[in-house]
Every structure is written in C-alpha cells, then in structure tokens.
Amino acid sequence: MASPSTTALLDQLATRAGPGAAVRAGGEEDSVDGVRPRLAAAPATGEALAATLASASSEGLSVRVRGGGTKQDWGAPGETVDLLLSSAALSRVVEHRHGDLTATVEAGATLASVNAALAAHGQRLPWDPPWPERATIGGIVATNDSGPRRHGHGAPRDSIIGVTMARIDGRVAKAGGVVVKNVAGYDLARLLSGSFGCLGVILTATFKLAPAPPASRTMRVEVDSLEAAAPIAAELAGSSLTPTAIEVAWAPARLLVRFESVEASVAQQAETACAIVGARGAVAVLGGEDEQGVWSRHAAHWSSGGTLVKLSTVPVELFPTLAWLRDRAATDGIEMAVAGRAGLGVVDVRLDGPPEAQAGLVGALRERLPAGRGSAVIRRSASDLRRRVDAWGPIGDGMRVMMAIKRQFDPAGLLNPGRGPGGL
Amino acid sequence: MERHVITALERIVGPDGIVRDEGELLTYETDGLVKLRSKPGVAVLPTSADQVQRIVRLCHEHKVPFVARGQGTGLSGGAMPHPDGVLIVMTRMNRILDVDIPNRRITVEPGVMNLDVSKAVAAAGYYYAPDPSSQVICSIGGNLAENSGGAHCLKYGFTVHHVLGVEAVLPDGELVHLGGPALDAPGLDLLGVLVGSEGTLAVVTKVVLNLLRKPAAVETLLAAFDSTEAAGNAVSGIIGAGIIPAAVEMMDRVTIEAAEAAVHPNFPKTEAILIVELDGAEADVAALFTRVEEVCKEARASEIQIARTPEQRARFWQGRKAAFAAMGRVSPSYYVQDGVIPRTRLPEVLGRIRDLSDRSGLKIGNVFHAGDGNLHPLVCYDERIEGQADLAQEVASEILTYCLDADGSITGEHGVGADKAEHLPKMFSENDLDTMQLVRCAFDPGYICNPGKVFPTPRLCGEVPGPYRKHPAEAAGLAERV
Predict the structure, then answer these.
(1) Less packed terminus of chain A by CB within 10 Å, N or C?
(2) Domain A6-88+410-423, CATH among 3.90.190.20, 3.40.140.10, 3.30.43.10, 2.60.40.3080
(3) Is B328 on the interface with A (CB under 8 A)?
(4) Do A265 and B192 touch (CB under 8 A)?
(5) Per the CB < 8 Å rule, is A314 touching B454?
C-alpha cells in the first residue's frame, strides 16, 4: 500500500487530534541530522498532545519529540521521522507549593522561565544544565541533563517526585505525586529520566525544590596540568566542605569550586578550600560579576562546536583517563577540550578533527573503560560520526530488560525510533 | 510443592540451606506486619549469587512463585511468603565485599545490615546516609526493595539516591548488572525503578552504595510546644526561612509518654516536641542553628533544649527511634500507619486524626518525619476486646483517605506490599496502574516474582496495544489478585 500523501495525513491528523494540536507540514527548520519530518505539531494542551499521539500511532507514524530543540542532535541519529511533536506550547508552571518546597510544571516550560517564577518565593530548581533560556523541563528530564551544581544537588532524576506522561496510544498516566516522600507504586518518573523520549512523552513533572541561597563564592584554581589538578580535586571532594560544584576544565587546566549558602559560610568555606589547595596552584576567590563571568565562560564549553562525549568513570580514575585521552588525541591530530564534574567523575569532552580519527579515539576510550566502571557516550556530533560509531556504546547485560520495557511501552517502535539508549 | 522441586532446591543450597519443617517454617510466615501470615511452601537460604540464580531459574522452569526476604522487618507484608512458593531468605549473603574510600563507594551483599555499612567506614570519616529507625536490624536488600528513608532523608534523600549499582537475578534466572560504581551508565534507569519495587522485579545479589563524608558539624535541638499545630508552624517557619535541616521529627503527647516509659529520654511533658538537627559545614550550622532557635521561639516554643554533647544528641534520637516499640508500654497492641501529606497540610490532617480518635475511642499517637510530611499515626487497641482490632484497622485506613484528600500518598516508606494493595487504586487511576505494570511485564512476564504484592490486580502481559479492554480471563473473574 502506498503511504498516504503528506497533505492527506495532515488533514487526517488535524481532524482526529482537533484544532488544539496545531498540525502543519514539516519544514526545513524542523530537520535534525538532515532528516526532515513530514509533519509537525505543537499541541496547546496535554490532552491535545495525547490525542495527537493517539492519532499518529494509530496511523503507524513515527514520532520525534521536541522541547526547546537544544538537544535534538543528541543520541543516535534518527532515520525517517513522520511527525515532530513539540511540547513547547505546554509552558505553564502549574503550581508552586512554596510552603512545601515543591512545584509542578509543564514539560515545555524552559528552565529559566520556571526559575524566574520560583524566585518569587526565594526557591529554585537547583540545576544549571546548558542553555537554560531554551532548554525545557521535559527535555532536561528526558536526557537527565545537568550542570556543575549536580555535585551538590544531584541530577534531575534526584529531584523528580512525580510525572504525568502520554503513552504512545494516547493514554495519559501518572506516577509519584506532589509529596517529597512517597513509595506508592513504581517510580516511572525515574524510569523516564534519561529515557530520551523513547517510552512516552512527559506532560508535567513535579519536583522538590531548593531554597535559593543568599550568597555564592567560587574558588578558581589554575594549575599546570591535569595531573596537577587531580590530587587537589580529590582532596576537595573528600573533605567535609559542602561545595555545590567542583568543576574541572582543560586546557588550560583549572578547577572551579563553588560554595552557595549564607555569607558567613561561603566566605569561610572558600578560605578553607584555598588552604587545602595551598601553593599547588594560582588561587582566586571570586564573587559578584567576576564569579558570573567565570561561570559563563565555563558554560561556553557546551555551546562551542565539535563533538561532545560524556565520559564517566569512578572519581579517582577520571584524571588518569583524561590524561591518557589528551595524549592519544594529540597523537591522532584531534583537538580536545574538557569541562565537567571533577568530584563525580563525569565530564564532557569536546573533540574536533577528522571523523574517522574521532571514531577511532572513542572506540579506544571505550576499550579502556572496564565494564560498569565507566562509559563514553557521544552526546552530540556531526551525524556522520554517530552513523560511524554507536553513540551510546556498550549497554551491558541490562539491555534485554530495556528492550522488553521498550516493547511494552511502544510495541511498534514509533517513539523516537532508534534514538534512545542502546538504539531503543 | 512438588517433591522433585524441593529435591532440586536442596541440591542447590545443601541440607543446611533449606527449611522444610512445618514448625520451622512458621518463623518465616510474617514480616514486621504480623497480622498478615502465610507459611511458605519451602524456604531456602542461599549463600551466593550463583545459588540464587539456580533457585530462581528452577522456579521459572516450574512456574513456582518466589518471594525474597531480608531481615523481615518490613511493615507492609511485602515479604509475606507465597503459600505454594519458595521463600528466598537472603540473610546468609551478608558479606561486605569491597570498601573503596577514595571513590566513596562500598560494595555489599544484600544481607548486610544497614548500620553495619556505616560502621565499616566510620573510622575513615564516612557513613551511609539512609537511616531507617530499624537500621540495627534491617538489611540493605530490604532497604533497596522498599526505597527506605529514615529521619535524615529530608536533606539526604532515600535509598534510591545512594544506590549506584546492583547485580540482580531476573525472574527468569538471568543475572544482570545495572549501574555500577561509575555514574551515568548508559541506558534506561532500571535501577531507578528497581529500587522501591518491593521485590516484584528481581532478586538483588550485590549492591554498590555511595558513601558520604561525615559532616564537619552537627547541632541538634529539642523544642517543646503546647500543641501540634504550633510545632507544625515551627516546621513551616524553618523551611520558609530557606533552611533544609538534616532532620525534623515530631512527637505528640501519646508517643512522648510512651518513649519516656520505655527509654527515659527525659523529654518535656508537653503536647508536642520537635527534634531538629542541622549538619554541614561549621559556619552553615552555626548561622542556621541560631535561626532555627529563633523560629521555634517565634512559634511559641515553651522550652528549647540543645544537645551539648554527643550523648545528649543520642538521648534525643534514642527517644525518637524507640517510639514505635515503646507504644507497647502504653497499649497492648498498636497498628503503625504510614502516610504522607504536603507538610503545609499538617495542622488540618492532624486535626482530622484527633477527631477520628475521639470518635472511635481509640488512642492515636503521632510520631513522624515532620520535615517531609511523612506521618506515622500509631493506632492503639486491645485485641482482647472484641472488634477492636478490626476497628483499629478501619481507623488506620481512614487516615489514609485523609492523606489522599490532602494530595498525599498512602505510603512514604513502609511500602504497599500486601497490606495496601487494595488502597493503591485510590491514589492511581486504571491507566496509571496499567502503565506501571508494563514495567512488571518487562521484568516478570510469568508473574512469579513476589506475586500479589503492590498491585491489586495483575496486568496480563503481552496484550496488544490499543484502548484498554479486559482480558477474557480477567473479565471472567479468573485473574483477580492472587
């Protein structure tokens, strides 16, 4: 049977999903990795989004989910896409229960807009992933993306307490709730965190919040090499100080250690941190605009071009792995830069160079990481590289359960096909 | 149970590892929720992951249900055995396998006691954060199944925040490794859904836990109030001031008196006390502790005691943690309820519980994690008085409806288990439960892993997608809760 024309599909979907679905023909601006969706929809409500999904799946259309579009090129590159389904119109803060330190927000709200609303009561979602002005809550949760403050506050999966999702067949389901402590039923909110939209579409999410701290200070430590940064990072992470971030960046090699609390505490903790570093590096304690400046320059790592590989190891193996990678990249003629969570062992390595050399480097890195003790995932790259090398790398023996879950949630494999972890 | 299955089990675990004697099996017929009893077909005590794997594979081949059990301290009947099934008792798998201080990790078998994890790393200045009240006698495997919290989870989170990896046996006998000592293992967060799944998805055989550095400073105070409302206002005031204490615990008059009778913590004789603990960097604790004191005074605390020594702090906590067991001093029997409400709804819900106590004539003590709204009403009764046990059950159930009316949950830490499965549909729709059970179907399509727990009605796996319709067996009433 010949597939129906785009116009016919458009009519059909618009009729079935209702005017709220805002269905239109896919344009060049909707393309990802050179794949242009036939249709695009930005439903105005969760119900309309679910109805759109139901209509699309009953037609057997493949669906790519989009929030702010900041991470569309993350994960395995998709093949064809019939419908680009945007959650961008679902942008409300549904409820801020400030007395309970929780908030429920729609998936399409940007992190910056949510935090602007929460600031009215001195609270926030304490995450700082890249592009907060554009990145949406749904996208941040679906990728479980985080930033420097993950050191002190965890990743989105650590703050999420409830979720509402639309299943591929349009059924809407929730899990968790609005209370911070709750063990009733299975924790689907965590299952969806980092699922890359391959199990369902997040409509709303509820989080426990953090009070916005009154004061902040950042210690910058400049050292000669990654090797020199390693023991300092280890000592800071193993100390009883309570930094919200311990970042490494290279090159040149430096550490950024942030303290956020009351003034007396951030001043004293920064002083103690400086004493730990001693004469091993050039130390500066930054506040105010200087501090903001150092963090926005740090964040530029994620906005620069090139390949972005998320490298994860146990904390003490991070620096030796980075040093090995640096030497190998130099040999292979690949430019490299690093930024990420020194205390946790999770960094993003930026690579620039011939795709075949990058592919070789990623392969060699994966071989070096023992199973369960590290991983190297290509988050973002030219689609060429992700077609050459599996973006996710080995998943391990849990893969069969993941595939079984995918089959249960999306039997026909229509949601973000091939893009999710392990190509789910 | 078929004889050849028992013979095969004995071959796996040896004669020392199997319990078949009817009398000895009675030991295992309940967990901490003694009202629900069921004697297992047979109990086995494996000593290795390999044995667990062979046991589960055997169950899979013969379609025999199995239930994993740790120390049996659960309070929802989650480890209640299946009468025709195998009870897998994990207590002999109790070795600490690896302590890795530089990476702040510890690898343990599931039978290791919660407190023993912290003890193993205390000398190095570290600890394991989740601290359920039963931490002396509860094991990590059970903590993982229940996603246990504890008094300090307000600031530090639950088991799910501290488990980094597991080795587990799936219901078909396959061994899998989820997560690991490094963060962000690629793939779906199966660990996130396995933790708290109440033993219905897999049997865990090894666990990698995250360790925390002991805080530089800890300060604890005890504040007395003339009413639970006033104490509740103090809690709101503390959170509203942007302070996240390590713990905020509340006890009411009934539980204060019980604790006094049992362990003599010398608590003020008043309507409500709060125990507030701050920890962290010294300057933080110093600045914020003063603020907490001020908030308590503003909320009209009649007395504030500050723990000046570790012994005094231990006395506060001993009084609090003894509260459940101490109820035996003031009532012949009691039922511990576990519900959650948004903390701003505390005064309203406590008021309703008080009215319920007056109406039913049953004394209800309240001891709870006030910071996170996790209530533990203790419904006192005397089983020698006819009908009172049933009345206590009804009263406890009614409290759950108050929690749901306040947008809360039917369980904050004890789990759904066998006890509350019938309440789960009050909190979740048919679609919600159906979706959760998609996970169950992926892990355990044969429905042999702790069947009958959590969900009131099993979802039949392998249904075609589309609008929900009842499976013929379900429609015919053949597929009700086991």
Answers:
(1) N
(2) 3.30.43.10
(3) no
(4) no
(5) no
Residues B451/B66, Cβ–Cβ less than 8 Å: no
Residue for token digits 């603020």? B291
Q: Are B404 and B417 members of one domain?
A: yes
Compute the average pLDDT of residues A151-163. 97
Q: What span, in angstroms and rounded, lies between the C-alpha atoms of A138 and A88?
A: 9
Which residue of A101, A208, A390, A408 is the best one to mutate when testing the B interface, meaning the one whose CB has the most B CBs within 10 A?
Answer: A408
Residues B105 and B74 placed together within one structural domain of the fold? no
Number of domains in chain B: 4
Q: What pLDDT was estimated at residue B378?
A: 93
pLDDT of A29 strictly over 70: yes
* SS3 assignment, position A211: strand
Q: Assess whether B303 and B386 both reside in one domain.
A: no
Per the rule left: phi > 0, alpha: psi between -120 and 50, beta: everything else, B418 is alpha
**CATH architecture designation of domain A93-211:** 2-Layer Sandwich (3.30)
Q: Which of B300, B330, B360 is the last residue of a domain?
A: B330
Residue A98 binned pLDDT confidence (cut-offs 50, 70, 90): very high
Domain at B106, CATH number = 3.30.465.10
Q: What is the CA radius of gyration of chain B?
A: 23
Q: What is the CATH number of the domain that holds B13?
A: 3.30.43.10
Q: Please tell me if residue B351 touches chain A, with a CB cutoff of 8 Å.
A: no
For chain A, the C-alpha Rg in angstroms (whole number) is 22
* Domain residue ranges in chain A: 6-88+410-423, 93-211, 215-298, 304-388
pLDDT digits (tens, 9 = 90+) for B266-289: 999 999 999 999 999 999 999 999
Q: CB of A268 within 8 Å of any CB in chain B?
A: yes
How large is the average pLDDT for residues A180-197?
A: 96
Kindly determine whether residue A181 and residue B407, on different chains, have CB atoms separated by under 8 Å: no
Architecture, CATH, for domain A304-388: 2-Layer Sandwich (3.30)
Contact residues, A window 8-67, toward B, CB-based 8 Å cutoff: 57
A170 to chain B, minimum CA–CA distance in Å?
9
Separation of alpha carbons A213 and A141, rounded Å: 23
Task: Judge whether residue B158 has pLDDT over 50.
Answer: yes
Mean pLDDT score, A392-407: 94
Q: Following DSSP, what letter does each residue of B319-365 receive, concatenated?
A: HHHTHHHHGGGT-SEEEE--EE--GGGHHHHHHHHHHHHHHH---EE
Model confidence pLDDT, tens digit, residues A220-236: 999 999 999 999 999 99
Residue B12 confidence (pLDDT):
98
Distance CA B69, CA B81 (A): 8
User: In which residue are the tokens 């179907």 written?
Assistant: B441
Has residue B216 got a pLDDT over 70? yes
- Cβ of A191 within 8 Å of Cβ of B428? The answer is no
Asked if B242 lies within 8 A of A268 by C-beta distance, the reply is no
> What CATH number was assigned to the domain covering residues A215-298?
3.30.70.610
Three-state SS for A374? Answer: strand
In a domain, B464, yes or no: no
Residues 6 or more apart whose CB falls under 8 angstroms from that of A265 comprise: A215, A259, B281, B283, B284, B287
The token pair at B397 is: 């159930």
Report whether pLDDT(A205) > 50.
Answer: yes
pLDDT tops 80 at residue B482 = no
Whether residue A351 is predicted with pLDDT greater than 50 in this model: the reply is: yes
Cβ–Cβ contact A275 with B under 8 A: no
Q: Any idea which residue has 């801020």 for tokens? A: A96
Pick the last residue of a domain from B309, B330, B351. B330
Output the pLDDT for position A3: 62
State chain B's mean pLDDT as an integer: 92
Residue type, A400: R
**Phi, psi of A353, rounded to the nearest 5 degrees:** 160, 180
